[in-house]
Each structure stands twice: as C-alpha cells, then as structure tokens.
Amino acid sequence: MTLAEAIIARHAGRPVAAGEFVEVPVDFVLANDITAPLAIRAFRELGANRVFDPSRVALVLDHFTPCKDVRSAEQCRAVREFARAQGIPHLFAEGRGGIEHVLLPERGLVLPGEIVVGGDSHTCTYGALGAFATGMGSTDIGYAMATGRTWLRVPRTIRVELSGELPRWVTGKDLALHLIGMVGTSGANWCAFEFAGKVEALPLDDRLTVANMAVEAGATAGLFPPDGEVLDYLRGRAARGYEPVYPEPGADYAEAVEVDLGRLRPLVARPHSPADVVPVEGLGEVAIDQVVIGSCTNGRWRDLLLAAEVLRGREVHPRVRCIVIPGSQELHLRAVREGLAEVFLEAGAVLSTPTCGPCLGGHMGVLAAGERCVSTTNRNFRGRMGHPEGEVYLANPAVAAASAVLGRIASPEEL
Amino acid sequence: MVIRGRALVVGDDVDTDAIVPARYLVTSDPAELGRHCLEGLDLGFPGRIRPGDILVAGENFGCGSSREHAVLALKGAGIGCVVARSFARIFFRNATNLGFPLVECPVLRDVAEGDLLAVDLRRGVIRDLTSGRAFAAPPLPPFILEILDAGGLIPWARRRRYGA
User: Fold this and answer.
1) Which domain holds residue B12?
2) Are residues A112 and A52 in the same domain?
C-alpha cells in the first residue's frame, strides 16, 4: 500500500485500495473563523450536543483577525462561544495563536500516521509530517466534530522521486511551483502526492510549503514519510502519542515522476494561475507595487530568515509596500529576539501580527485595480488579493524580498 | 429528476474565489452570498443570472478554497445545477453534502450561452434542446448517490442516527 492507503487502512481496520469509499475515524479536526461558523451550524443541524473529543478539535481565528470589521468580529464571537460551551481547549486567537497551518504543527497537535480533516483547503500542509491531512467544507467538518468520523475516497498516488540538493535561493516553494506547473491545476484531482528519494534534502519548513501547495494541483494530500528530522521536531512537542506510518514496498502508484532538486531555479507563477510557472530570470521587466512575505505557505522560520538575509542592510524600493507576516506568535517573538524584526523594519517593511489577511484579499494588504504584487502565498487567482484587475505573482521568500528591494520581479542573484 | 434551464457558460478553472470573493465571507446567508455569485469572474455576472439557469463549466470547476459559501452562493443566486467537464474535489464534496445537483461530464462541449438544457440528474444525461446534442455522464458511485438521495450529508447522517 502507498502511504495514503497505509494510513487510511490503519484507520479503517482493513486493507484499502485507491478508488474505494471508506468511512474512517479522524484523529484531529480544525476550522477557522470563516469555516467554523458554518460547521457549527451543520453540527447543530445534525442534532449533536457535544463534540466527539474536545481535545481533538482546534478552532483558529486567523483569516480576518485582528477582526477587520463588525461582521468578522461577530463570526469570531460565535466561534469563541462555541469553544467555551464545548470545553474546547484549543481555541487560538490574537496574541496566542497564529496561522492555523503554521501553528498546529508547532503545537504538536497534528502527528505522523494520523488522519486530520480541516475546514480549510490548505489542511494538506500536515502531510509534511506524515499525516493524511486534507481540506473539506464546513458540513464535512461539522459532521467530523460531531461524530469523530469522515468519509474518504482513497486517493490514487503520484510518487515524486527526489534527488540532488537545493541550489542557493531555491526553496520548497520552487519545488511546489515546478510540480504544479508540470501536472496543472487539476492534474492531481482526487490524487495524493507521495514524496520519496532524497526527502532529507528539503528542510522540514520547505516540506511544509510543498505539502501545503499540493491542493493547487488539485491533490487531496501531499505526503512525506516522516524521517529523523520530523521525529526530532516532535520530541517534547507532540500533544499525544503517535505511530508513524510508511509506504509498503511494491505499492501500486498511479504515476511516478522524478525531480532533480539541483536543477530547479527560482520560479514564479504568473497571474492568474499557480500553474503558469516560469523561471524568474525569463520574466523581463515587471514593475511591482506590493510584496507579501508570510502565509500558511511561507510564514515559517526559514522563510523569514531567507527574507531577512536579502533585506539586511538594504531598503525596500520607494514605490513598494513590503508586508512581512510571521506565521505564529512564537515566530513573531523569535523574529524580535533574534534581530529579524529590526532588519525588516529598518528596510522599510511592515511587520504584522500573524494573519491570513492579505492572501485572500481580506485585509492588511488588499490590492487596488491595476496593482501588481509579488507574494509568497499560494493562490494568484483573478481577484484573490483584492480588485479583479490586480495581479499576483507567486514566488519564494528570497525572490519576494529581492523584488521588494528592486521594485520589480527579481532574483536575489541580482543584488 | 430532470432540471430544465438556460445555459450560462463559463470556462476552465473557475475557482471558489471567483464564485464568491473572500471579502463577502462575513455571512452564511445564501441570498446575500448569491448577490455576489461569480462576481470574481466579472463584476457584472450576478446581474446576468436568472433563477433556474444552468451553469455550464469546463475543467476543474470550484478549485481552490474549501469555502462552502461557494455552493451557498450558487444556490442563493438561483442556479438550478452545475454541469462541468470536471469538478475539483472539495467543491464536489460540498455540493454533494448540501444536496446541490452537479453533473460531471468529461465529453461535454460546444454548449452556447442561452441554449435551453434539460439535465437528467439520475441518468446523467445532458440534452441541449437548442442544438439537439446530448451528452452522457459516467454514473455516480453508489456511495455518493446514497448521500444525494438522502438530500445531503446531514439528512443522510440523521437517518443513520449520528449525533441525534
């Protein structure tokens, strides 16, 4: 069995094969300030009174927080009231939280071998830890909160064999964009990616980025077998006991592709598709108005370090707003303690408390008509960050930072 | 059950931000969401929708964010059903869970804006009454039909006495 099949089989209590429908218990359920209100409505419509296990539910107020208007505040209040009434300890909000998919791995709440379902499409991020984690809508999440179960169609698996070492200024983001460019925005619909070969060449933060963007190719999950780096990371952090699961030899893969990391270069996805991927240096002169560095895709420590390395001693171009958003309170504090905050602020960047805000055109960096942004986020759909005539180019944090300095899309090599 | 309506045609990769932009996700009211239905594609789109219209899409309809508000917006705008060459997984789940009719038909092509369609949900047949063409969709898996027949995941679950 593939890694996806092996994890699902363990939960189903029997062997499973790609394509079949199964009902399985879930280990953890999450929702955010946008999806939780509807999930709570579904939960009530089911006639449920108690969540299946309050310690296995997380409610993360991250999308429109700190609340951007009265209506978003009302949604957050409703989620808080639900958490209180249900005795859910893992309610995360301003000052003690962060962006859900940065935060939950950090708190050890999502673990290898588990099945995690979340009311957010980027729930697949936890595949980097070897969890079968996938995004669903609110009705599914209301059902999972009530019953501790979900239904799944066992995905076919696309195996991605990695070799080589990442060149300088190339990150997991470039691997993600390369894969999405290769298979297209629906090339992995109802499939899982499973990474194999030299996974240790990708630091864990980069694997989280790669798994995060699996959904941009339509994938149900993006799975890495948990290696020593993952097990070390979870030591002293894991909220529960866990048992890692690995793919079986001779598993049946629907497709296999190979990627030599050493041949990747810094890439960008042009508007308005994450699959419209080209090397940065092939772009020509593209002037920009805004840069966003952060999000559930690229708001982790290695991302902040790379951006700071580029911005240290330099200035953001006078025409550009550069918004840096650490993905969690812990990372924000670390950025202050280790001097990164000073680097960003001295360069003329904005340093924000954790929020998803600008990624989905919510707040903290919405685009006007005709404005162009280089963003380390995950989606550059038309209108995603604001006005439908705004443009978003997706890139890694080093490219985003170099672009902020030069006022045009640029590789850090140019500095 | 056969749904009849006028075709409203959109392209490939219509994402859920296009169906309902995130700035409107401060409500779960279908009527309010429906007033912004497909506004991300074209600011004038909501004004072109007439109740009972059938949305005809290409590949990967509903990709992107998991927001169930996308299905609520289509419902709220009065769209009778969506037929597409393919649907993104999460959108397909959401529509199924809410009992909103979809037909996935990989051979669907050349439907013109304004054509009159008749969609037989149970048999998976899409007839273009204007052009005289018909398209057959592969049958739905029995498990999905079970949920649809119940009217969505919640009635399906209540029938099985979950959470009751």
Assistant:
1) 2-137
2) yes
For the segment B98-134, what is each residue's pLDDT rounded down to a tens digit?
Answer: 999 999 999 999 999 999 999 999 899 999 999 999 9
Q: What's the Cα-to-Cα distance from B93 to each of A153, A217, A308, A375, B96, rounded to whole Å?
A: 10, 17, 41, 29, 5
For residue B149, is it within any domain?
no
Q: What is the pLDDT of residues A244-268, one digit of tens each?
A: 999 999 999 999 999 999 999 999 9
Q: Is the backbone of residue A107 left (phi > 0), alpha (psi -120 to 50) or beta?
A: alpha
Q: Is B144 domain-assigned?
A: no
DSSP string, A230-254: HHHHHTTT-SS------PPTT---S
The residue-averaged pLDDT of A138-163 equals 98
> Could you read off the pLDDT of A354-411 as tens digits, one per residue?
999 999 999 999 999 999 999 999 999 999 999 999 999 999 999 999 999 999 999 9
The span from the CA of A328 to the CA of A193, in Å, is 27
φ, ψ of residue B56 to 5 degrees: the values are -115, 120
Check: pTM over 0.95? Answer yes or no: yes
Q: Residues A182, A257: contact at Cβ < 8 Å?
A: yes
Q: CA nearest A36: which of A69, A74, A79, A98? A: A79
- A334 & A229 share domain: no
CATH number reported for the structural domain that contains residue A383 in this entry: 3.30.499.10
Same domain, A150 and A17: yes
From CA A372, how far away is CA A412, in angstroms rounded?
A: 19
Burial of A87 (0-12, 13-18, 19+ CB in 10 A): exposed
Residues of B with CB under 8 A from a CB of A: 13, 15, 17-18, 21-23, 25-28, 40-43, 59-60, 63-69, 71, 86, 88-90, 93-94, 97-98, 141, 143-144, 152-154, 157-158, 162-164
Q: What is the pLDDT of residue B164?
A: 41
Number of domains in chain B: 1
Does the ipTM exceed 0.95?
Answer: yes
pLDDT tens digits for range B58-81: 999 999 999 999 999 999 999 999
* CA distance readout (Å), A313 to A19, A324, A338, B37: 54, 16, 16, 47
Of A136, A379, A388, the CB nearest to B64: A379
Q: Which of A259, A286, A318 is the last residue of a domain?
A: A259
Kindly state whether residues A316 and A168 are assigned to the same domain: no
